Amino acid sequence: QSICYDPARNWTVSVSWGYAVQIIRGWIPAHEMERPARTFYNWGKNKDPRLFSFNTRPWSKHPCEEPYVYFFNNVVMNTANNVSWSEYMLHRNNHTDCFWKVETPEKISRVEVYKIPNPHKWDQAPRRDCCRVLPTEKEGTMVIDVGEC
C-alpha cells in the first residue's frame, strides 16, 4: 500500500497496487491509512466492533470522508523502459452530498498508476513505497507514480 496526498485538491490517496485506489477528501495521516478499513459488521445482536480481534480503521460517519474507490481494470508492462502501467476505474456508488469547500473526486473516473518493479524488494526490510500525484492534461484522469521514497 502506498499513501500520498494531492495538496492542490486537499485529498488523501491510497494505492493498493493491483487491487484498488481510494481517494478521500481531506488529509488522513499515513498511520491511520495503513490500517485496513472495517468493511464488515457483527451479524449477531451485539454490533460492538471491539468484539473482533482485527486492527481495523472504522469507516468515518462523515459523508465528506467517504472514499471514492477505483478498482483495478488493466495492467501493461512496458519492457522498453521497465515501467508497469495499471489502470483503475471508478466504482460508481451513491455518494451523499458534501458541503466542505474541498473539490469532489467524482470528476475523476480513471486513475493511472506507473511503477518501476523492484525485484530485490523481497530481500529488503519492509517499507512502504511512496506515491506522487503527477500533473496531467487528461480530463477525468489522475496520474500517480509509485516508487521508492
From TrEMBL:
InterPro entries xrefs: DUF604
Highest taxon, organism lineage: Eukaryota
Pfam families, sorted: DUF604 (PF04646)
PANTHER family linked to this entry: FRINGE-RELATED
Record's protein name: Uncharacterized protein
